[in-house]
Write a structure and sequence with these properties.
seven-stranded mixed beta sheet; about 240 residues; Nuclear Transport Factor 2, Chain: A; 8 helices; alpha+beta; 2 domains
Amino acid sequence: MPDDAAVAMNPSQPRLPSRIPPQASACLAAIAAAGLGRAISLGGGLGLLHYLDYRATHDAEAWWTEEATADDRRRVITILEGTLQQFGAVRTRTWGEVVSIELREEGPPVFSFQIAERSALLEPTVPAPSGEILLDSFVDIVASKMVALVERGAPRDFRDIHAVCQAGMIGPRECWVLWERRQTAAGSDVDRRRARLAIETHLARIGQHRRLEQIAEPGAREAAERIRAWFSTEFLDALDQP
């Protein structure tokens, strides 16, 4: 659920979020100082917070830009490793087209900076408020979130899409249009039945993992019930609209 009152921003005028993790701030400053700010473009949850400042995040997600050379990429990764080592032990992992530089304690990472190869871009990137790092457009961030919602279905994916819709920044049908545009641009399928089944499966999994009756705080329980019902009805109904 949102941490505080959401602060919606003009998608054409992103602003610096109020809750950037100190590790992310240090990493972005180091990349900018090295003159490599145009090698990546912020996306994911941290990117979204530049448009809707409504929750905290414990990671940073970005895409390699077309301008990033192989040497630029190596330098960025080295800078991220060195910067995060100031905070503790660091491990770098790669899988597929993703590199993840992780700050670790015992157990799961406490912060990670992930950079992936981009498969599709709908609109040009824009300068982040600092002017030294690139930022994905609101359209691309929502489109990517929609892909994550269908393919991964993490609770934060549901929260993020619900939040931007409730803030009046976009509607459910428009979210699905962006999903279809991005899938098409990436050469992926736009099977609506598969997408519906995926959302229903993710909701069922979340419902089993965190049953409403197990949520002790009444406000959190009511919010979870409301969000799940919204996705099951209004959001999925929009998928069938022409």
